[in-house]
């Protein structure tokens, strides 16, 4: 099953997903059970500007519906490949890897 990430309402298909859980007694599900997630996803020329603009916000609503996970996430690490998307054709994709640190509940 394909993993989906939702950032401020925008769905993104992931090529990789890792999470660092919080190990605390009595912690429930949702925003309290993960310290950070690291995701990797392809970015093509046609969605580059929208994706970059979204990531420049730095703190976003982060949801992973397939895992029942949602939290406010601050970008603490970001890197991309070496493809120049301004010069790329429509079929080439760069790969973005982003780590989001859980900084609270959505709407809090």
UniProtKB/TrEMBL annotation:
Q: Which domain of life is it from?
A: Bacteria
**InterPro entries attached to this UniProt entry:** DUF3219 (IPR021596), YkvR-like_sf (IPR023105)
Q: What is this protein called?
A: Phage tail tube protein
Q: Which organism is it from?
A: Lacicoccus alkaliphilus DSM 16010
């Amino acid at each position: 099953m394909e993993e989906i990430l939702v950032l401020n309402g925008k769905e993104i298909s992931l090529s990789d997903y890792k999470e660092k859980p919080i190990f605390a007694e009595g912690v429930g599900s949702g925003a309290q059970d993960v310290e950070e997630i690291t995701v990797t996803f392809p970015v093509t020329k046609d969605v580059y500007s929208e994706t970059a603009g979204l990531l420049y916000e730095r703190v976003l609503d982060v949801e992973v519906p397939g895992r029942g996970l949602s939290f406010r996430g601050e970008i603490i690490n970001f890197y991309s490949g070496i493809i120049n998307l301004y010069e790329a054709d429509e079929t080439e994709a760069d790969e973005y890897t982003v780590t989001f640190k859980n900084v609270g509940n959505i709407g809090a």
